[in-house]
Amino acid sequence: MKKIKWMQWGVAGILVLLAGYSILHVHRAEQKNAIKVERQAKVQKKEDKKVKDLKKEQAKNMRLPIAWDQPSELLPYPDIKQAVHSKKKAEQIWLLVSPEKQRVYVRQGPYTLYTMYASMAQNFDSTKDYQQTPTGEFKLQKQRGAEYFDATRNYGAKYWTSFKGQGLYRFESVPFDQAGQVIMAQAERLGKRPTEKKNIEAYGSIRLSVPDAEWIMKNLPPNTKVFIEEKHPKHDPWELMKD
Fold first, then answer.
1. CA quadruple 95, 105, 150, 195: dihedral positive or negative?
2. What is the dihedral of CA 193, 94, 115, 135, to 10 degrees?
3. Which helix (H) or strand (E) holds 116?
4. DSSP state, residue 182
5. Are 111 and 51 in contact (CB under 8 A)?
6. For 226-243, how does the pLDDT look when each residue is reduced to its tens digit (9 = 90+)?
7. 72-105: pLDDT as tens digits
8. Buried-state track 69-88, b at ≥16 Cβ within 10 A, e below 16
9. Peptide bond into 76 cis (omega under 30)
10. What's the Cα-to-Cα distance from 112 to each of 71, 127, 155, 174, rounded to whole Å?
11. Residues 206, 121: contact at Cβ < 8 Å?
12. C-alpha–C-alpha distance, residues 142 and 222, integer Å
């Protein structure tokens, strides 16, 4: 009988020790997690500040009035020679396109390095399918060139870079006529939001100033990611792309 009691007391003691160890282990895990969360919050705060500061700097240096034959910013284009070959996702260069704002953003991870005025169709309910700007995730393709002219549409452009359809959908300059003269009525719409009654008829392509289009063609290699937003985006696509 005494032996049984001693065994019971022994088991109880072991259970108490195990419970104590479990509580201690959970407490330590909670402490580690709290430290990790605090570090992540500090990193995020630092990242948010850098994003905000870059936006302010670019807003101050956007060229006004908008010029179709000049870079969109007064600042020089970013040096991305090393970044375009990086295998780290957070260091890679990608393009964010906003039909709503009529802008193209050259980004590295969550940071906007350069902002370009753009001209592209907004996808209103009445926009014909062949005039709609594709939305979603794409990649720059190898098809690109210094200029083209499409006789069926009676306009061409300079410095084009395909992002879909092997040349069907492109980043390109504002349009030029067969004589090589800029079509001023279209060039003057660069960076300005279209209306449903007066939409941009670019056949899904994205128009830029001549220097901006040239920079993309010459500096961004095939497979550079492109994300074209839909109307009223709720989230930064980087949150999806970084995972």
1. positive
2. 0
3. strand 111-119
4. B
5. yes
6. 999 998 787 788 876 766
7. 999 999 999 889 888 888 899 999 999 999 999 9
8. eebbbebebbebeeeeeeee
9. no
10. 16, 30, 32, 23
11. no
12. 5
User: Is 42 a residue whose pLDDT tops 80?
Assistant: no
What does the block give as tokens for 105?
């953003």
Q: CA-based Rg of the chain, rounded to a whole angstrom?
A: 27
* pLDDT tops 60 at residue 1: no
Residue pair 172/213 in contact by the 8 Å Cβ criterion:
yes
Rounded to whole angstroms, the Cα distance separating 10 from 12 reads: 5
Supply φ then ψ for residue 195, to 5 degrees: -110, 170
Structure tokens at 33: 């997690």
Note whether 156 and 178 are within 8 A (CB): yes
pTM of the model: 0.81
Q: Are 123 and 229 in contact (CB under 8 A)?
A: no
Q: How far apart are the C-alpha atoms of 242 and 226, rounded to whole Å?
A: 14
- Name the strand (E) or helix (H) holding 33: helix 2-61
- 148-186, pLDDT tens digit by residue? 999 999 999 999 999 999 999 999 999 999 999 999 999
Structure tokens at 84: 């375009």
Q: Which long-range contacts (CB under 8 A, 24 or more apart) does 231-235 make?
A: 231/99, 231/100, 231/122, 231/123, 232/100, 233/98, 233/100
